[in-house]
Amino acid sequence: MADETEETKAEERLEQAETEEHAEQEEPEASEESDGNRGPADGPASLESQDEPRADAEQGDGPEDGDEADAEQSAELQDDTEPADDSEENDEPTEPATEPATEPVSPQQRIIDTAQRAAQAGTASVTEGVSAVRELSAARRAHATAFKELETLERDTKRLAEQLEHRRDVESNYERIVEVQMAEIEDAGRALERARVRRANLESQLEGKNNELKRLKEANSQKMAPSRKLMEQAKDALAKAERAQAEARRALKNAQAQADEATASRDSKLQAAKRAADTASAKLARQQDQLTEMRRDPSAGAKGLSQASSSVAAALAQLENARENVARVNQETGQAVQIAQTHLYTQRKSLEEAETDLAQARAREEELRGAYDAKRSEANEQESAVSSKTSELKESLEQARDDEAGARGRGQAAQAALEEARDIHAHPELTDELSERCQESRARTEEQRRLVERLAAEERTVRERTQRTRKVFYALVAVAVVIVLLAVLLAFG
After folding, report:
1. What is the pLDDT of residue 8?
2. Residue 105 above 90 pLDDT?
3. pLDDT above 70 coverage of the chain, percent
4. Between 20 and 30 A from 358 (CA), which of 349, 374, 409, 481?
């Protein structure tokens, strides 16, 4: 029945959508036919009058009589529509066959004309199809509603039966239930007391371990305070030595740059002074050669010899000045280079001392840090042992609390069962009342089941009786859809 219900629901949704669409198209087409060539007997009123005998036939006869009536109605409708089409064609003005058409008919217009003729011819079938679909949908809805109510009644009946069976079972075993539940209450009480004692003991032990762990941490902190202080001091000294070594490196780098600069300056200045002395010496030699040649020349006058002697004397003085400048530059630049070399040597010694201090500070820091880590590791082991015991006590305490809650729950459940048994035993009239309600619910359920079976049979009958009409209706709908799609394709193609 579930599969059939799902199938009918899906079919109902499809039929309702198609019925609404074609019911809207049916009304204007029917009105056009009633205003056109067809007479009053061919309009909607005549169709409704034709449906009334069909409905009477369906109520009086079985599915076979209904099918015969549908066949007769379809034949009559087809006979009624054909003369209307002929009359429409005969009413058109006749023209000679040899005369060409003034305006050619487009494919879209031909499709629209065909659709109009098909709609006029299938109006009765569409009306019958809509009625058949609505009738089948109503039968399905009635069947489904009754089936849901039957399910509700069955659940209620089952619930009442279970309650009645439980009350009767308690009544028949009342003495045994009282005995068992009393024993359960006593046993749960003893278990609850044991769980309470164990919980209290574990809580006391846990509190003691927490206090022990707290005291141990404080003692370890005090014991390691000197080592921690020495380690921190060594760490500060190491950082200070690292900074001093970095500063010594920078100072040595600057001193090296200054020494290089002083050496380069000395070399350049000394070379310049020596080049000036060489120039003066070369000039003196040229002047002396000229004086010698003039002295050998008898034609040379006294004035020329005097000027040449003066030039030689001037060149000699210039050479002496250049040589004195070389000595002076050599002395001055040598002193600057010596000062820079001395400063460089001092910075090298400072860097060596800083590196030595850094190595000593690093070794001291590693020594003190190792001693502190060893003490810290020993303290951690002690604290971890106590903490592990604390965790075990916590787990045991949680288990004791669970046992206490379980024992309390057992006692409460047994007390509730005992009170329920006493209440059922003290009020037998409620059991009788429940038995009557259960019988009434069974009777209503059986009555509803017969109604469901009758509605299911009626639904099958309606389905079989309207099968041919619905098929024709679906075919007309499919044809209309195809025609519309073709018209759209031709219009936009």
Report:
1. 52
2. no
3. 73
4. 374
